[in-house]
Amino acid sequence: MTIVIDTNVYLSHFRFGGLPSRVCLYCLEEADVFVSPFITNEVNRILRDKFTLNDTQLTVVMRTFQESIVLVEPTSPLPTLCRDPDDNHVLQLAEFVGADYLITGDKDLLVLDPFGLCRIVSPTAFAEQMQVR
Predict the structure, then answer these.
(1) Would you state the CATH architecture of domain 2-130?
(2) Over the chain, what HEC string results?
(3) Which pTM value belongs to this model?
């Protein structure tokens, strides 16, 4: 199974735990999880600027994050389907890696389900489908 997890789910995982954490951990154990430099940069920036992690905390979180996923640089054309142009980068990655699932809490992405062969689902819907506890 090939999965792309959107920035908002990673941020919830790192910061708040709960269902997003269980979904992320399940995906990391049971699937190939792909991210792009766009997503890693966005996660890094928000953890630093919005959640005010200090340099040491940020280094630990980002090192652990990057050891757990497959980093790829999509070379396919950037879609233009989303109201928020940043969301197009997530779609580009999902399309480029042939993702089975894109897991997101972003309503602008959720309304696009399905995106080709990729299902776009919330963490809750994914957890229910995969029986993540």
Answers:
(1) 3-Layer(aba) Sandwich (3.40)
(2) CEEEECHHHHHHHHHCCHHHHHHHHHHHHHCEEEECHHHHHHHHHHHHHCCCCCHHHHHHHHHHHHHHCEECCCCCCCCCCCCCHHHHHHHHHHHHHCCCEEECCCHHHHCCCCECCEEEECHHHHHHHHCCC
(3) 0.93
